[in-house]
Amino acid sequence: GFWHKGGMYVRQGMVATSCCRFLRPRMAVVAAPLRISLAVALLLVAPQSPLQVAVAQQTLKLSATLTIEKTDDKVKTHDHVADLLKYAKDNKLEGNVVRFVDNMVQQLQKVLDAAKVVEQQKAVEVPKEFTPAKYRVKSMPKLQAKKVTVKKIAAKDLRAKLKQGKDINFAEPLLVTNATALFDGEDWDRVKRHWSAARIMGDEDLERDLRIDYWPPDKARARLVGNMLQMEEPEQVPFSRYIVICFHGTPAKPKLPGQNTEHCEQTVDAQSMVRNVSELDDLAIFPEIKNALPGQAEFRRRILEAGKDELPMILGKSAEKWRKGKGKLPYRYFVFGPSGSGDKLHAENGLPFYDILIHGSRRWLLLKEDEMNRVAEKAREALEFDKTSAYMFFEEKLPELKEEFGLKKYFEANQQSGDLVIVPSGWFRVSLSLADSISYYETILSQKETLKAVTDNAVWQPQFRQYQMAYCYETKELHKLPGVEKDSQLHKWLKDAIAKVKWDELIPGILSVLLQCGSTLILEKSMPELNVQGLTACTPGAWKACRARLKTSLKEKGSSATLSWLPEEVPTSIDDIPSGAAKKVGSEEL
Length: 590
What we know:
Blueprint: E1 2-5, E2 8-11, E3 28-29, E4 37-39, E5 43-44, H1 50-56, E6 65-67, H2 74-90, H3 95-124, E7 151-152, H4 155-163, E8 174-176, H5 187-194, H6 197-201, H7 204-209, E9 212-214, E10 222-225, E11 228-231, E12 235-237, H8 239-247, E13 266-269, H9 292-306, H10 311-315, H11 319-326, E14 332-337, E15 346-347, E16 353-359, E17 361-368, H12 369-383, H13 390-404, E18 411-416, E19 420-423, E20 427-433, E21 437-443, H14 448-459, H15 489-499, H16 503-521, H17 523-526, H18 540-557
Parallel strand pairs: 7-8
Antiparallel strand pairs: 1-2, 3-5, 4-6, 8-19, 9-12, 10-11, 13-14, 14-21, 15-20, 16-19, 16-21, 17-18, 17-20
């Protein structure tokens, strides 16, 4: 082929022209990689033949591309290339080879430096939303309460009341706007950074260990098998999978709030979402409040840790299941979900609590138990309002309850990020996330009447069919139970029932009573104002009776468990619980 230039035809590959200039052939450009890559952008001069290069005596420039994928270990790549540079220098390779590898090391170092800057920026950046834009569900500000009727209180005024000894169990709910003033220094910014979806998803330990109980909207929670109602189990999914299921849509089909998300709210034990409980320290904003629950939770943890070697020989194959069911006493929680999610109307186990919204926006409705029962008599069958999701409650049920069934005595509030809601005991509540949200809430147990009710409801309340403490007494001693008169109808019924109880029911029952009673009795020193030894059915005498009954039962069963980890004397402090495991079998004969 010939090129036509300045009136002359020149054969392709020739270098002379009519004006004695060199006509260079076309240059081939090396394309940059499309992925995250490291490359030296160079032009490669591509002569037509080795003879042409020799004639022109041009410098030959070559480029090499090193592609780094997102998942590649950049530090390791840098170290390996640095090893190559050392090898080239030590073995005195050609200078151009040394310069080539040295340039690559310098470029990789720039990549590492840039990544370090990005990480530093992320470490101090305070996220404005719970979820990254990729996963964010559209907010619903139009569903906010038209009028806020919950009484408001400033953070400083609340702090002053608590310092004066006022209990947090106020007569009515309270809304503390901008409760960030209750946090010290930069604690609030640290909380917002730490409890974002992106940070949680990036925590490798949580991704491995934390499982969310997810109920698909089309899955029944129970099914009838013959004449028995059998409970179903939820799907156990990691946090990242939960985020994809409940938050993630596509540009063509975004996740819409409401019926697509109403089932997605999660309430998770706060301790299960941390590797170290110190991660929750920034959220301990009320040091003035005396709360029995932390001490009770620690008692359970210590007693089960002390007896971990013997519980399997006492309970057999069911030991681990029993430990999981009885071993924890959650009182701190995280509640999170996408826009449009929220649980049905419910009460918080009779305990007061406070809820601080970290990210997002929520609408609350609260009403007392008597108003709830009054309206429920008229509306439960017609509306089933106490079984519907928060979204459907506010969208459909609330207008009907007001217009047709006379709902009047209730309070509403709009909670924004940084706002705190205080809910007294005995109040029912329903809350709807109007944006992707996460909050922290803590239940409080500090009043004598509440502690008595919680304890007795768990061990001995015959009028409500709670007879568990009867496991701790031989049939001839049942009259020692509170309110049981000898030869009364209740006494005769208990004697007949206890005589039929088998080991696999009796022994776990006694252990459960000891856990509950011990967690109440250990408050004697830390909260003497409660007078716990005479407050409930869990008296010092009941503790000794339960331990003695357990020891006798294990001996009759033929167990070699020592019970050395279980105090013989009544525990009055968590420090009365041995910190180590149980003694070796044989140290105490049963």
